[in-house]
């Protein structure tokens, strides 16, 4: 079980939806544009960086990607697109957001943004070490490498403008709790929940400040979703009825409260030139889990019913499978909130992402 816990690559800030990949769906101000999108975080945002490093935290094999373009597994932990891609769609930037480590990247890919995220990572450096993935410090080093490449492509002045006007999205904390704290228990012997949260928030704050120092000015930082309600948490800590794990959700809420306060402090004091927004993704996610039937969609002659299954993933038995344990998929993924035992389906991502995007994008305009 400890080995299985170490594979957790958690979903989080469940970001921005699009139903139209050719233009921004959200009504932006006519003069508002974002030249690029930059992503940092875990498996919710990893569009394939882990394909290029030595780790078991991968999703570059079927049935992952069954609903992606061409039905190709790309390293995205879902059946299709993930929030990184959907965010780029919403902003009208491009239809998919490539991983920075992809060796086939072209200049245009770099000019319009990439993902630096790595599945299974967390704010706690120990979390990344447990799964041999990119830590937040590693992602920052890759970003510095990116800036060097951008300067060669666009010149220093234009590069600075791109960074200043682009949107930066950051998520973390999921794996810190599901792997490092509640999973392997390595940190539980050192910290109680509040003190561990203080450690995570401190790391998150430092990361945001470092992004600011490298030229970022529009930064969205996402809190945790109800991590106790993902299928694997229900299986391991939800009792015979597989209810949401109360302890996990309480930790997520406390983390969110402390992270929100820290972001407000940074915004009002140290990083006065920046627009830094804390985004609540806990409540929108929980609403889908509690009220799945209300999330049907109706568009012209196309209809989609709400969700039928909220406590199991589409993959395997839906109770514990993820990563290489995900061997086969259900017949109708549209019935499921979750794709595997941790990560949502593209349908779920699209719904929640759009809701969050509409609520918070105005802060950056």
Topology (elements, then pairings):
Blueprint: H1 2-5, E1 37-40, H2 83-90, H3 107-111, H4 125-131, H5 136-154, H6 156-165, E2 167-171, H7 174-181, H8 193-213, E3 218-222, H9 231-237, H10 246-268, E4 275-279, H11 282-290, E5 297-299, E6 302-304, E7 309-313, E8 336-338, H12 346-360
Parallel strand pairs: 1-2, 2-3, 3-4, 7-8
Antiparallel strand pairs: 5-6
Helix pairs in contact: 2-12, 5-6, 8-10
Mean pLDDT: 90
Q: Over all CA atoms, what is the radius of gyration?
A: 19 Å
Give the number of DSSP strands.
8
How many helices does DSSP assign?
A: 12
C-alpha geometry: globular
What is the strand content? 5-15%
Distance between the termini: 46 Å
pLDDT under 50 segments (min length 5)? 1-24, 298-302
Walk me through the structure.
- The protein is an alpha/beta fold and 365 residues long.
- It has twelve helices and eight strands.
- The longest helix is centred in the C-terminal third of the chain and has 23 residues, at 246-268.
- The radius of gyration is 19 Å and the shape is globular.
């Amino acid at each position: 079980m400890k080995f299985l816990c170490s594979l957790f690559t958690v979903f989080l800030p469940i970001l921005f939806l699009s139903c139209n990949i050719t233009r921004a769906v959200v009504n932006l101000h006519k003069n508002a544009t974002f030249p690029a999108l930059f992503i940092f975080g875990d498996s919710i945002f990893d569009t394939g960086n882990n394909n290029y490093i030595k780790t078991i935290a991968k999703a570059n094999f079927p049935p992952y990607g069954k609903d992606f373009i061409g039905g190709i597994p790309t390293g995205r932990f879902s059946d299709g697109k993930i929030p990184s891609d959907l965010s780029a769609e919403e902003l009208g930037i491009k239809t998919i957001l490539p991983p920075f480590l992809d060796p086939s990247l072209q200049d245009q890919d770099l000019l319009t943004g990439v993902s630096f995220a790595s599945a299974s990572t967390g704010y706690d450096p120990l979390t990344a070490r447990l799964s041999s993935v990119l830590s937040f410090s590693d992602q920052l080093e890759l970003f510095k490498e990116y800036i060097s490449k951008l300067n060669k492509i666009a010149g220093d002045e234009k590069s600075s403008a791109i960074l200043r006007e682009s949107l930066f999205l950051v998520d973390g904390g999921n794996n810190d709790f599901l792997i490092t704290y509640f999973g392997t228990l390595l940190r539980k012997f050192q910290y109680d929940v509040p003190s561990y949260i203080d450690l995570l928030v401190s790391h998150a704050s430092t990361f945001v400040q470092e992004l600011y120092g490298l030229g970022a000015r529009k930064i969205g930082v996402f809190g945790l979703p109800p991590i106790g309600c993902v299928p694997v948490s229900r299986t391991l800590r939800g009792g015979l009825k597989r209810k949401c794990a109360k302890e996990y959700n309480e930790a997520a809420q406390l983390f969110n409260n402390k992270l929100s306060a820290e972001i407000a402090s940074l915004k009002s004091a140290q990083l006065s030139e920046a627009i830094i927004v804390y985004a609540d993704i806990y409540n929108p996610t929980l609403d889908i889990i509690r009220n799945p039937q209300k999330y049907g969609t109706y568009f012209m002659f196309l209809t989609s019913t709400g969700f039928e299954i909220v406590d199991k993933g589409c993959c395997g038995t839906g109770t514990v499978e993820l990563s290489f344990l995900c061997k086969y998929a259900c017949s109708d993924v549209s019935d499921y909130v979750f794709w595997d035992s941790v990560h949502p389906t593209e349908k779920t991502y699209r719904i929640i992402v759009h809701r969050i995007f509409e609520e918070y994008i105005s802060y950056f305009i």
